[in-house]
């Protein structure tokens, strides 16, 4: 299929696609749309920015138009699950555009906004509901939604669902769905846990796979600078002043880190905004809106909040903190290489993050160009072994574990026990250093002395 007109889509949908200026389908659309139109389950592996929203939206809208059944009270005919508010909003907006004037009602439901308005909308029934798992379960618990009549289920960004801890909510949702349905499952990666989750949702799926991770990495001009953690903020400021980027996305590992970066940039007159889970929904929408309109050129985000950011023309991606999961690196730099475009990524790597960079190179097969530090910066310290859990204090490279003081046995941290410190004046608290004593020896000795006094 080389043109959208080659697909067996309903005429009104063909017109909407043509009006949008789309003529040639992307690879994921070429592979997914034909079997989806036949009602088959789909298991798709595709990065963001490959056009997978249209790949599941267009066949679903075709089905909903062909079958004129109306949704009943508190029902939805199609359910799309997304990991973040931004992605849910983006999908709902796209599907609203594809189905404009076709008599279909599309809505979204996610946290961060009052639930009462969402409850009122669902009362009359909707054709398409795009929701995050948490808010979906809230609506079900309040008896404002039933999933017994769902005809089409879409699970988008499944790998991020697992990263965000949505595996338990998803397992709760599955039994509520009718067994006879069409399911479409999309993920950027396919580890074993994702494959097992797909088995619960899909029945004899057609597998489609496009844009392997190395493809995204190869389209991006990747650069890296080794730097001390304390110097990152100053280098970021210098980079922005020298490059003057049109649209730049800066990634941090934590919410606090994102706020700190914005605060420091604003202090030197560089307008920027942060987007992360601690921001209210209006704050997130305002920051994203200002970024899209060009009111601000710098958007600082965490990995989770960045899911669903669909902004054309992002020229630079800065990894202020290296991700401790290699796949996240591919997601990050893919923001500046959407729809086949090219872009620049720049990673600031501290000594304890070098192992993360090696993991990224192993995954993508692309080694970033090393950019030397400008004059006036101290060379980074000797490499440290990066901890596997972000936030742990790293150990010096090649260091051996050492003990401080004499060896301690397994009870050493327990007060009033052999080898440990003294209790609160209790028995055994004055144990001599000639060896450990039983914790109750003091009490027994006291009782024996009392008995001897009584005998005397």
TrEMBL record:
Residues 381-456 are annotated as: Disordered. The keyword Protein biosynthesis does not apply. Gene3D superfamilies: P-loop containing nucleotide triphosphate hydrolases (3.40.50.300). This is DEAD/DEAH box helicase. InterPro entries: DEAD/DEAH_box_helicase_dom, DEAD/DEAH_RhlB, DEAD_box_RNA_helicase, Helicase_ATP-bd, Helicase_C-like, P-loop_NTPase, RNA_helicase_DEAD_Q_motif. Transmembrane segments: none annotated. A motif (Q motif) lies at residues 2-30. SUPFAM superfamilies: P-loop containing nucleoside triphosphate hydrolases. Residues 408-417, 445-456 have a biased composition (Basic residues).
